[in-house]
Structures are given as C-alpha cells and as structure tokens.
Design goal:
The complex is a heterotrimer of chains A (410), B (292) and C (223). Chain A folds into three domains: 2-31 and 323-403, no CATH class; 37-105, no CATH class; 107-315, no CATH class. The radius of gyration of chain A is 28 Å and the shape is flat. Helices cover 26% and strands 30% of the residues of chain A. Chain A contains eight helices and 25 strands. In chain A, 33% of the residues are buried. In chain A, helix 1 (2-29) packs across helix 8 and helix 6 packs parallel to helix 7 (358-375). Chain A has helices at residues 2-29, 67-72, 79-85, 99-105, 161-173, 323-331, 358-375, 384-403; strands at residues 37-41, 46-51, 56-59, 64-65, 91-92, 95-96, 107-111, 124-125, 141-145, 149-153, 158-159, 180-185, 197-201, 206-212, 215-221, 229-234, 242-248, 253-257, 263-266, 277-282, 287-292, 296-302, 308-315, 334-337, 349-352. By secondary structure, chain B is an alpha/beta fold. Chain B has two domains: 2-214, P-loop containing nucleotide triphosphate hydrolases (Rossmann fold, 3-Layer(aba) Sandwich), CATH 3.40.50; 219-289, Alpha-Beta Plaits (2-Layer Sandwich), CATH 3.30.70. Chain B has helices at residues 40-47, 70-74, 91-99, 107-116, 130-144, 160-177, 188-194, 212-218, 257-266, 281-289, and strands at 2-11, 14-24, 29-34, 55-60, 63-64, 76-79, 148-151, 180-184, 197-202, 205-211, 220-226, 239-245, 248-253, 271-277. Chain C has 223 residues and is mainly α. Chain C has one domain (2-219). Chain C is built from nine helices and no strands. Classes of the chains: A alpha+beta (410), B alpha/beta (292), C mainly alpha (223). Chains A and C meet through helix 1, strand 8 and strand 9 of A and helix 2, helix 5, helix 6, helix 7 and helix 8 of C.
Chain lengths: 410, 292, 223
C-alpha cells in the first residue's frame, strides 16, 4: 500500500510540475505578440495598418504615413479629430456627409473567443421595452427558463406566479419547447433601447422574447432546418439594422434583421469561433470584420449591402515557432494548464509540445538516472516504472521520482 | 525469544557493525553495553522495527522485526529513550488509552505506582518531572504485562532515587513472572543491578557476549608498578587493555595471574606492587572498552 | 474495540481546535450573510442580484481560504504532537498493523474535517437559498467546492510532510504540495470550475493515503 501511495504522489508531482514549470518558463520568456491595429479606409479603398509599439502607420502596400495622414484616411473613425483640425471632408465618394448620418451608422462589436465557452448566467432581467422613459430601469424580477419561464422577485426571492404563467403560456403557444438551451441578450440597462432576448429552445428553435407594457411579445424566427447556432450576440446599434450577430456551428456569421427577422449570411470565411477573437467595425461606408487568430490577423471589408470589397491577411510566428517556443519543446514534453485563452471554464488543458525535440532531453535524463541507480547498486527490476516515467515525462518525471524516492521498496 | 543474525548496517558509508549475531534467552535480562556510536541505538531501532538493516535480520518470537504481527506486538513492552509518552494526556487518559489495546490489561500495578507519586489523576504528563514520567512509563508496562520488554536507556535523565526504584521494581517483576528484558543504559552501575547477560559493542563489532557472572569471573585487572617505565607490554597476547601512566600500569586481561607473571619474568620486566584489583561492572566495562 | 482508543487519543489532540475552528467558521458564514443582507437592504435585491449575475461579484469569496485553514489546523493539531521526540513510535508499537493505525487516525481527522465542512456547506446553502434562487446558489456551490477539496488536500499533505523524517524531503514535499494547492485556487468566474471539479475530487482522493509513504520511510530508518 505504501507503494501505491508513492505512485499516486509521483503522479500528482508530475501533474503539478507539468503545470508550474511551463508556466514559469513562459512567464520568464514569452514575448508579447504585436498585433497590428487595422481599419478599412473608405478614402483609399485599402486597409490602414497602425503598428502600435513601433508607432508606425502604413497601408497594405507598405507606404508610410504620418499620424495625421493616417487619420485623414479614416474620417469615419477620427471624426472628432478631423473636425477639430478642420480637415474633415464634406463628401466622400460623391456622398455628402451629414454628421448625424455618420454617428448614426457607427457601430463596434467585439467577441472574445472565451465568451463562447463560458458559464451562462443563472437568470436574466427582462426589461420593459416600452416604458416611455429615456433611460432603462433594471426590473425588480429576473427570469429563468426551466420547464416553464419563472419570474422571481429579487427582493423576496419568490416566484411571481401570474407573470410567470402569462409568459409561459405565450411561449408555449408559439411552440416553445422547454427548457431553454441558450438565452442571448443584453442584460444591462446601459443600452439605448431594449430588444429583449433571443432564446433557443430544447429543439434548437429560435424565439424572440420581449416585454411590451407588461405583456409578453413572442415571435418564432424561421431558421433553416440544418442551421444550428453555436453562439448569438445581441447588439445595440444606433442604425437598428439588425438585432444580433449569430455564429453557426459551421463558423458562419449571420445577422438577424430587425422587424422582418431575416437571417442574412455574411460572406466571411476564415473565422473559427473556437480560437479566434472577432471585431466588427461598422460605419457609413463599410463593415470591417477583423478576425484575430493565434498566428494571423485577417481583415475583411464589406460594403453596406454585405459584399466583400477587400481582404488583407498578416501572419506571424506562433510562440511555439519562435526561439523560446523551440527551446520549450526541447525541455518539456507537454504542458498542463487549468486555464485556456479560448474558454472561461477551468479544466485540465493538456497540450503536447508541437515538436519532438524533448525526446533527446528525456533520454539524457534517463541516462543520468540510470547511472545514478547503477552507482547505488540498485536492482533495476525495482526501478523499471521510475525509468519509464523519466523516459516519458522527462524533466517532470525526473524531479518527481527524486522528490518521492523509491528507497526502501526493494 | 530474540534472535539477530548477520546484522550489518552503515550510516551512509560509515560501517556501524558487520555480521552481528546474538540471541536473548527466554526469562533472561540482557544488557546492551557500548560507547556512544557503537551501534546501540541502531540495534534498538532494528529490534523495534524503526530501521531496516543493510543486511541481516532480527527475529522476535520467530517473526522478522520489520513485519511484526499485532499479536506479537501485544506481547512486547516498549520504553522509548527519555520515557517519552503522549504528554498531552493526563494519567487517567493515558491509562484509558492504552487499556483499550491489551485484553490482559492490569490497571492495579499502574495505579499502585501512581499512588506513590505526588500527582493527581488529572495531571498532564507534560507537567511532570522526568522521574515522574519514568514512573508512568513503568506503570504502563507493568499494566500491559508483556512477555518481552525492550527498554531504550531507561536511566536517562533520572535522579538516583528514581533509577533505583525503577531497577528494583523491574527486576523483581521480571524474575517473578519470568519476563525477558532487552535493555541499554549509559549507567553501568544500574545495569549491574539489573542484568544477567551482557552484550558489549565497540567500533569493530561485538567485544563480549556472555553472562555477567561469567564475565566478572574471568575478566581481571592487575595493577603494578614498572621499574623500567619504558617497558613495552602491548605485544603480549593476553593484554585486552593496558593503561600506563609513567610507570604505573593497569592491566586488563582474561588470563590468569600466573600467565601474566610468567610473561613478565620471561621478558625480564621487573615490577613491584603487583595486585589483582576487584572490579565493579563499570570498572570492567571501561577496562574492556578503554577510556577513550 | 481498539479503534475506540485511537479515536479517543485523536479527539484529545484536536478537540479544542475542532470546536474553535468550527465555531469561527460558523461565525464567518454568519458575517458573510450579514454583508449580503446589508447589500439587499442598502442596494436593493435587484441590484445585488445584478452585480452577482453580471458584474462578477462573488459574494461567497470570503470563504475562500476557510477550508484550507481547517485542513492545516486539524492536521497540525493531530500530527505535530506525534513527531515531537518521535512519539509516533509509541503508536507504531501498538498491537495493530502500522498502516491500519495511521489510516484510522487519518480517517478520524478527515471525518472531523468533513463534519465541519458539511456544517459550513449546509449553513451556506441554507442562507443562500433565502436570498437567491436555486440556480444562483448552485453556481456558487460549484465555485466553492474546489476550496473545500483544497481543505482536505491540505490536511493530507500536512500529514505527509509532518511525518517525513528528513528535512530535505519535507521541503520538497512542501514545494510540490504548495504548488499543487494553487490548482484549486485559479482565479475564475462563478461556476467556471464545473468541468474540473470531478478531476479535482479524484486527485484529492489520491492524496488521502499519502501519509503512508513518509511513515514507511520513517519506519525504515530514513534520517
């Protein structure tokens, strides 16, 4: 039984070292990735690239710009600056510029990859969408959707029966299949208007739920049979063109238009929800979709009717491909981490080193341990498991079996 | 009852002893004597299962001391050096604790001993003196009534009064109930009162393994004064130890007086004031092992 | 029958620590819910729910190191007296298998700890259900579960470290143990530990017999 105790301790030591040593290594040697800041210029019909740490501004052809020249190419973004310096043009591409049109068309959307694989809130606030007031108030009750929709009063922690029954009935009538799989919406009162929630039921049907003057508004949205959404982000844009960005499990990006609930697919490829951050800038002339992956950034400019007008991609080396990464792969067979950049969940994330250079180091440690045993005249039969662990787990195994020694077990 | 075969042990690279063999007969009281560093503690630790010898084994009641069965452990009473006990307990608690383990527990001898101490049952052992603690330890052993007692330095830290009490109680108990005792101590005078047999270790191994009576009967000390203080006696085969200060000599040997005298005559060594000196066990021990 | 004596000895060692710790823990939980009650009274129920649900406020965070403190306290109270002057030799001399005795002692300490933790867990759940609906309470329980596992791991690791005879290895075990415990305390949003809790439970269970390793080394005469 002591033997089992030792092996369990060695296992835990190996696991701990596989978490700590790589972590310390990267803490010491990881270099930050200098991602460029890219926007689309409606003046140039080209992407403008700002390299923040180098303090340079250029276009995709490499032509340098001063900061002022750069901002001139991006009037939609630097409206305030150009107005104050008096360099704001009156029209672009023959379209006369109205300040209100410009500000009304502006939008920014951001989706970090870890927002998709994350715990969902337990309850949501359903705002009164036509309160008649300028600002939204947080409601007194929050809802959850299990076998029905429950509204629970926060102050008393009690279910509001009447309201719950009324809304449950409304959902049921529209064919809602309880419980809800996913509830998407903007749960904050800090928005210009409330558009309720987009809710996916247990059969993957999509519904729109709002509260209008205290009464339920439910609309079943037509979604094609084979279209399944992995994530839905509701938006609050001044232009009110669409309710949300929807991300299918085939990595397609859709928008859901307001009022007529049409699902329009954007011609974006190269987006992978499981490992890319997404930014979407909208303005009077374009939508600029920026996909940030681990080793590249891809920007796609769309026209106002969602056609691709330009794309640009920049690559860089993964940290595993850089010198520090190569040295890492020569030392450590793998890394275990409790966190991941791609998720908010805590798991045992195991990643094998991409190169196999560590095999040489493992063999070296194996030889060292072998000699160490030989010097002590140990019976090798009793140390086979230890030698195996050094061979497979390398430095982690080597340290573990020396911290928890195989003495007295012959 | 106790049997140790071919015991070999090292501390790191330093040899403690090699191929040590001894046994303890049932009903006898064996004392393990030796200077510090000769392996007394090592032997006790091996006997108690707290040390795995590099080679060899010890058997108690036929079982290897590394894996004593619970039944065998019930028959062994154990005293740790310094009379160490669970000092967070008081007398009542410690009696209650140990009584649960031994079906033949006899509370009477324990409480009898406790009544002789100036302590209340609620008194914590941590507040007791060394001597009082030794009484508690002794009382617990008597109450357990084991067949074999292993005592590691029973006299450490005790006043002469407590030491005498301990020894007298122990010897009377052992002889009356035919108990076997294996013990070590620094204080040879105490050992003399207690033990029947002795095992003497020095830095090279066993120096003597015999009954005390036999040893005291055969090991002798002769004192004399040399006329020529340069005379060298060390080569004499019968010399176990020789202590020479100027021309005064203390000679320790197993040989008879006549053999010694014959050697002196044969080698023309003139001596005066030749006399055999009667020894206590302590003198004999020092004579056997040397002053250094 | 003998286990009763063992339980008796272990209880004598830890009783005041156990009672003191449990009382302090209960007071701590009481204080925690006073702050919740205060928030409800001064900020309102909906605002309290809002910051918990959407602004990452973890109202249960004062509990974070409470189980760990318990594990450390009970382990030190139980095992430290055994190593002073190597008193554990007395225990090993008792007429029972050595591992059996150790596991009995360990089981007693673990059960005492479990009792304290169940009391805390129960009080916490009960109070939470007054103020929050069951889904929010479940999410907070998922978050505090690893902290309770860490309490057990700390207990198991301290026993291992205290019983180890050689100082060099005590240091090694402490390093590994300390870093290992950080796995239970990765900073995370509420309910994020869900997928990891089962694995953590298994690892904690693995450590439950760790002390047998250092006790074995002690009995083989490691210095």
């Amino acid at each position: 039984m002591e033997k089992i105790s030792r092996y369990l301790l060695v296992f835990i030591a190996i696991l701990t070292l596989a978490v700590i040593l790589p972590k310390l290594y990267w803490m010491a040697f990881e270099k930050p990735v200098r991602k460029p800041f890219i926007l689309y210029s409606c003046i140039n019909d080209d992407f403008m690239i700002h390299r923040i740490s180098e303090k340079t501004w250029e276009d995709t052809k490499g032509n340098p710009y001063t900061r002022e020249e750069y901002e001139q190419k991006l009037p939609m973004m630097f409206l305030k600056q150009l107005l104050s310096s008096g360099t704001m043009p009156d029209s672009i591409k023959g379209i006369a510029l109205d300040m209100r049109d410009i500000t009304g068309a502006k939008s920014f959307f951001r989706l970090k990859v870890n927002e998709i694989d994350a715990p969902a809130p337990a309850l949501y606030p359903l705002f009164e969408s036509q309160s008649g007031r300028a600002m939204l108030d947080l409601p007194d009750d929050f809802f959850r959707i299990t076998w029905r929709i429950d509204f629970i009063d926060a102050a008393t922690n009690k279910v509001l029966e009447e309201k719950s029954q009324m809304f449950s009935g409304a959902l049921y009538q529209k064919g809602f299949s309880f419980p809800a799989k996913k509830i998407s919406g903007l749960a904050t009162p800090r928005k210009s208007i409330d558009e309720g929630y987009l809710i996916m039921d247990s059969k993957d049907q999509l519904f729109h739920l709002k509260m209008i003057k205290g009464f339920p508004y439910v609309k079943k949205i037509d979604v094609p049979e084979d279209l399944k959404f992995r994530h839905i982000s509701c938006v609050d844009f001044k232009n009110k063109d669409f309710y949300a960005y929807l991300f299918s499990d085939k990595n397609e990006i859709y928008i859901l238009t307001q009022d007529d609930y049409k699902l329009i697919k954007w011609p974006i490829d190269g987006f992978e929800a499981s490992n890319c951050d997404l930014k979407i800038w909208g303005d009077l002339f374009n939508y600029t979709v920026i996909i940030e992956a681990e080793d590249h950034i891809k920007t796609i400019a769309l026209s106002p009717d969602y056609q691709v007008v330009n794309t640009y991609t920049e690559n860089w080396k993964l940290k595993e491909e850089q010198t520090e990464g190569k040295i890492f792969a020569s030392l450590f067979p793998a890394q275990v981490s409790m966190t991941s950049d791609n998720s908010k969940f805590i798991r045992f994330y195991f990643s094998l080193s991409k190169r196999l250079n560590w095999i040489f180091f493992n063999l070296l440690l194996f030889a060292i341990h072998f000699i160490w045993l030989y010097r002590r005249k140990a019976k090798f039969r009793n140390h086979l498991a230890d030698l195996g662990m050094v061979a497979v787990c390398g430095i982690f195994g080597f340290i573990a079996i020396h911290f928890f020694q195989n003495k007295f077990f012959e | 009852m106790i049997e140790c075969n071919n015991l070999t042990h090292y501390y790191g690279r330093k040899l403690v002893y090699e191929n040590l063999n001894f046994h303890v007969r049932e009903g006898s009281i064996l004392g393990l004597l030796g200077k510090n560093g000769t392996g007394k503690t090592t032997t006790i630790n091996i006997l108690n299962g707290f040390l795995q010898p590099r080679n060899g084994e010890c058997l108690i009641f036929g079982e290897n001391t590394q894996h004593l069965s619970p039944q065998t452990k019930a028959k062994i009473g154990f005293l740790i050096e310094g009379h160490i006990q669970y000092s967070f307990m008081n007398i009542r608690q410690i009696e209650k604790f140990y009584s649960g383990f031994y079906p033949n527990w006899k509370p009477a001898p324990f409480w009898e001993l406790m009544s002789k101490l100036n302590v209340t049952p609620m008194q914590k052992i941590s507040t007791m003196s060394c001597g009082q603690r030794s009484q508690v330890a002794l009382g617990l052993i008597l109450a357990q009534d084991p067949d074999l007692l292993i005592l590691d330095d029973f006299s450490m830290g005790l006043d002469p009064g407590y030491r005498r009490l301990f020894i007298d109680y122990l010897r009377e108990y052992a002889k009356a109930e035919n108990k076997t005792i294996f013990t070590t101590s620094h204080i040879i005078q105490d050992m003399e009162r207690l033990i029947d047999d002795m095992l003497v270790l020095d830095f090279n191994g066993v120096l003597a393994q015999t009954s005390v009576n036999e040893f005291m009967g055969s090991f002798k000390r002769f004192d004399f004064v040399l006329e020529n203080d340069k005379a060298d006696l060390k080569k004499a085969s019968f010399v176990v130890n020789l202590d020479k200060v100027k021309n005064k000599v203390e000679l320790y040997t197993y040989s008879s007086e006549s053999i010694v005298k014959k050697y002196l005559d044969d080698n023309n060594i003139k001596v005066s004031n030749f006399a055999q000196v009667k020894m206590e066990l302590e003198d004999a021990f020092i004579g056997l092992t040397g002053k250094y | 029958m003998m286990w009763k004596s063992i339980v008796y000895k272990e209880w004598l060692k830890i009783r005041w620590f156990f009672v003191g710790y449990t009382l302090l823990g209960i007071l701590g939980i009481g204080y925690l819910f006073l702050t919740v009650k205060h928030s409800f009274a001064f900020n309102g129920g909906k605002n309290t729910w809002n910051i918990v649900l959407f602004l990452g406020h973890q109202f249960f965070s004062p509990l974070k190191y409470v189980p760990l403190a318990g594990g450390l306290t009970i382990a030190i109270a139980q095992y430290f007296p055994e190593t002073v002057n190597k008193r554990i030799k007395l225990t090993f001399h008792l007429p029972l298998g050595e591992n059996k005795i150790l596991l009995m002692m360990h089981a007693f300490g673990s059960i005492s700890l479990l009792l304290s933790f169940l009391i805390f867990f129960g009080l916490f759940t009960g109070f939470s259900l007054i103020y929050f609906p069951v889904q929010m309470v479940a999410d907070s329980l998922i978050s505090i579960f690893p902290w309770f596992l860490a309490g057990f791991s700390a207990y198991f690791l301290v026993a291992l470290i205290v019983l180890e005879p050689a100082w060099k290895f005590r240091l090694f075990y402490s390093l590994v143990g300390g870093f290992f415990l950080t796995i239970y305390y990765t900073s995370a949003v509420t309910a994020a530990y869900g997928p990891a809790n089962t694995g953590l439970f298994v690892l904690t269970a693995f450590l439950s017999i760790a002390l047998l390793f250092s006790a074995h080394r002690f009995r083989k005469g490691e210095m």
